[in-house]
């Protein structure tokens, strides 16, 4: 394998592992930090090509590079959080590496291409996310309220949210979790006097055309169906930068806009978000 292919392969696989860790650990981190961590991991992988750098292949050196990647990629607020992220990162590495080589062994393909290695790693990442989600769904969660902060376009929106075990909405394409929020929370971004509870594709398209480009690019279509109702509806979704719950920033969150009227809370959380 040529060195450039080796570097490219490691860069993609390292990024997949780091990105998967952010999902498993439910930790918000910027893409640029994930890329930097992938680059550091790739540089370390290239060292294996040069025998004179064998001092870096010892167990202590590997552990130091492991910690360095974690510190570069993630915001560490406490020792407990550091250990949690380090543990998750280690487990994701083991799972993706192990399952990737299992796929290679199972297929019996002797000549691996760079794209095949990356595809195997991607499949392993998706499989791990699916397993983790299934375990999280097994946990029983009582309905409670929490104070949350929503980050979107350098603005923080604070409100009280209801943790509702009946809210299992997801973006059908990205599979990101949906948080239902009152339209009034996003009044600085959305047009006023709209009935967001009666949405269809044409209405959402009309609203999107009148939004600023930085908001319109975040619009998502979220289908839903009430129990006992055969007619499916649509919800206007807006991708948030992050959701802050219990001092933990969570990425990959969609805000489902609604006109629901309740004085006790202004958002409805998907229970999987906290676990």
From TrEMBL:
The keyword ATP-binding does not apply. Keywords: Aspartyl protease, Cell membrane, Hydrolase, Membrane, Protease, Sporulation, Transmembrane, Transmembrane helix. InterPro entries: SpoIIGA. Coiled coil: none annotated. The keyword Cell membrane applies. It is found in: Cell membrane. Pfam families: Peptidase_U4. Its main location: membrane. The chain crosses the membrane at residues 6-25, 32-50, 56-74, 86-106. Its EC number is 3.4.23.-. Belongs to the peptidase U4 family. Probable aspartic protease that is responsible for the proteolytic cleavage of the RNA polymerase sigma E factor (SigE/spoIIGB) to yield the active peptide in the mother cell during sporulation. Responds to a signal from the forespore that is triggered by the extracellular signal protein SpoIIR. This is Sporulation sigma-E factor-processing peptidase. It comes from Intestinibacter bartlettii. The lineage of its organism: Bacteria, Bacillati, Bacillota, Clostridia, Peptostreptococcales.
């Amino acid at each position: 394998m040529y060195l450039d292919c080796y570097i490219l392969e490691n860069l993609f696989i390292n990024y997949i592992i780091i990105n998967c860790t952010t999902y498993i650990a439910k930790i918000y981190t910027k893409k640029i930090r994930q890329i930097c961590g992938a680059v550091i991991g790739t540089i370390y992988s290239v060292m294996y090509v040069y025998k004179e750098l064998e001092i870096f292949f010892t167990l202590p050196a590997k552990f130091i590079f492991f910690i360095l990647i974690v510190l570069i990629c993630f915001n560490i607020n406490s020792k407990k959080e550091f250990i949690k992220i380090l543990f998750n990162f280690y487990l994701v590495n083991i799972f993706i590496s192990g399952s990737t080589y299992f796929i290679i062994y199972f297929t019996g393909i002797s000549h691996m291409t760079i794209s095949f290695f990356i595809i195997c790693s991607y499949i392993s990442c998706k499989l791990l996310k699916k397993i983790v989600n299934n375990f999280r769904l097994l946990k029983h969660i009582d309905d409670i309220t929490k104070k949350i902060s929503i980050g979107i376009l350098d603005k923080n929106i604070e409100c009280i949210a209801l943790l509702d075990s009946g809210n299992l909405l997801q973006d059908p394409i990205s599979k990101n979790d949906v948080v239902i929020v009152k339209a009034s929370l996003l009044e600085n971004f959305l047009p006023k006097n709209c009935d967001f509870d009666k949405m269809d594709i044409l209405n959402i398209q009309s609203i999107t055309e009148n939004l600023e480009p930085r908001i319109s690019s975040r619009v998502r279509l979220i289908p839903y169906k009430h129990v006992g109702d055969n007619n499916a509806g649509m919800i206007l979704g807006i991708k948030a930068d992050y959701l802050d719950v219990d001092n933990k920033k969570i990425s990959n969150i969609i805000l489902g806009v609604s006109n629901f009227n309740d004085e006790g809370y202004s958002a409805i959380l998907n229970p999987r978000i906290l676990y």
